[in-house]
Amino acid sequence: MASSSSPSSHSSSCYLIPLTLLALYIRICISFAPHSGQSKPPMFGDYEAQRHWQEITVNLPLSDWYRNTTDNDLLYWGLDYPPLTALHSKVLGHVAEVVNVSWIQLHGSRGEESYQHKIFMRVTVLLSEILHLTPLFLLFSPDQIPCLLLLAITPAQPLIDHGHFQYNSISLGLTLLAVLALKHNWTCTGSAMFSLALNYKQMSLYHALPFFFYILGPRYNSWSGVRDIVKVGITVIFTFALCWSPFLWTADHVITRMFPFNRGLFEDKVANFWCSISVVLKVRDIFSRVALVRAALFFTLVSVLPSQLLLFRESSHHKFLLALTNSALGFFLFSFHVHEKTILIPLTTVMVLFSDKRANILTNNQEGEQSPVPVSLPAVWFTVIATFSMWPLLLKDDLSVMYIAGLGLFLTVAYVLFKNNMSSRMVQLFVLSVLGCFFLHLVEIFVKPPERYPHIYPTLNSLYSAGHFALFFCYFNYRQIVD
Asked: Measuring CA to CA, how many Å separate 467 from each of 102, 277, 436, 462, 473?
């Protein structure tokens, strides 16, 4: 019996290996750059936070991981993520204990930055990319080579995980596995994967409403659907019980650390609504913390619920991806206590929209006929602005060279894809937008900020990026309505 696979699909599959190696190569190159807080005592940075959590989880009883004690000063990078992050830190801590026990010595290992330890930490992040890149690539067909190439070289997440230093690839990878499972109608598997994502990083809540409405929408009005919903409910409860059972008696401490309302409305110059409006209206000085929490909750729900109710009425995988993007963007723009790095959450589903054929631009081929560019320009555009929005953080971490190289490579590939389409209005707007980013960088390099406004450049970056994100939010909501 003849094989059902065509020679073209087989040859396309051959590109997956080099593209995967390219993605890993880029991440390895970034890992040689400085990390957050490098040689900057007494707090150092996120690199030290991750190492410190290994120290705490290996040396202290579980009941003290989230509590302030003489051996666990919560003001020094206290654990503030859900149980799965703590358990992951403990596993890594025990591996570190075997390799070199001094790396996790209680109180004696603070600020550990030896070359061998950096290799160990960087390798652990690199291994976590398996969980991220695998579902990301599997969400595309092997013949979508331009999309896969852009996925391999997208700079934002590698700069944060392998430069700045975090393990975002785990929670984002679990979310992508959940999306992949639901694409194949493996509802319980998808529910379990997303539950694990929620139990690794609470910011995965940005995607929770679309998962809820996408699963509920087509099932609530039939007995067979209700049975499926019950199965999903049991799966979610079991997954949460598995993650939280060791922390049953300290759950109040865990929850308090996970939702730190005392830290304020936003951190640094994040490109969202609250930071932008604070330029002219100092909301943090005018309103109480309780009032700001309520306002953030109100604005967030008002911004995200319309797209979620639309998903509930009209469920499809494409609308699910758009609803995920709209929900995450709404949370990023309006919710309480947002970081610059949180833009990676909406970016994750935007990357899956690289292959969105409904947003493709027509271009002229060699025969003079019009054919669609195989990559969605809005998704490419969003990726550029998301990376640009994190520039102040990356500059602080001495990652400017990696930022320039990563974003330069991405823009070069984007130029090759869209160079025959410069007459398109959307391409022209994209070019103007990128030139605006370039102009702000040039001004920052050559013009010293006024003494009265020392933070003017991070503020301009935030305002410029926030304006883009607001327009993208409107665009993706419009797309969910009309598609």
From this structure: 47, 11, 12, 8, 10
Query: Hey, how many other C-beta atoms are within 10 angstroms of the C-beta on 48?
Result: 26
Burial 238-255 (b: 16+ CB within 10 A, else e): ebbeebeeebeebeebbe
- If pLDDT is split at 50, 70 and 90, which confidence band does 3 have? very low
> Binning pLDDT at 50, 70 and 90, where does residue 11 land?
low
Q: pLDDT by residue (tens digit) across 404-430?
A: 999 999 999 999 999 888 888 999 999
Whose CA is closest to 385, among 346, 442, 357? 346
pTM of the full predicted structure? 0.94
pLDDT at 391 over 90: yes
Whether residue 357 contacts residue 430, with contact meaning beta carbons closer than 8 Å, is answered with: no
pLDDT at 370 over 70: no
Residues 6 or more apart whose CB falls under 8 angstroms from that of 375 comprise 146, 147, 150, 354, 355, 360, 417
Q: What is the mean pLDDT of the chain?
A: 93
